[in-house]
Write a structure and sequence with these properties.
It comes from Pseudotenacibaculum haliotis. This is Transposase. This protein has three helices and three strands, in the order H-H-E-E-E-H. The protein is elongated, with a radius of gyration of 17 Å. 10% of the residues are buried.
């Protein structure tokens, strides 16, 4: 929402940027990587990406406008990819013996 003088606040600019980035991502790791490329500092809760730091404030992804269903899809995909990586590492270890 624009202020009366027509200027976007930092939070609003951040919201637009994060929504744009999140739409392009297919996993939480990819989202984290792209946020860091934009010089944004992600923060975590219970070892999952929860939001972005803006100065001394923490803003959750849902507060910034990222849809909860999209976050769930990113989380599911991340768990699937982590499972595949773990399985692949076990297969490699088995072949070494």
């Amino acid at each position: 929402m624009k202020k009366s003088r027509g200027v976007l606040s930092e939070k609003e600019r951040l919201s637009l940027l994060v929504k744009k980035i999140a739409k392009q991502c297919k996993s939480l790791d990819e989202l984290t990587k792209k946020l860091r490329e934009q010089q944004l500092q992600p923060y975590y809760r219970k070892e999952l990406l929860a939001g972005v730091r803006l100065g001394n404030r923490k803003l959750r992804l849902t507060t910034l406008g990222v849809d909860k269903s999209h976050l769930k899809a990113l989380t599911r995909e991340q768990k699937r990819l982590d499972g595949l990586r773990c399985k692949n590492q076990k297969n490699r270890r088995g072949r070494e013996w």
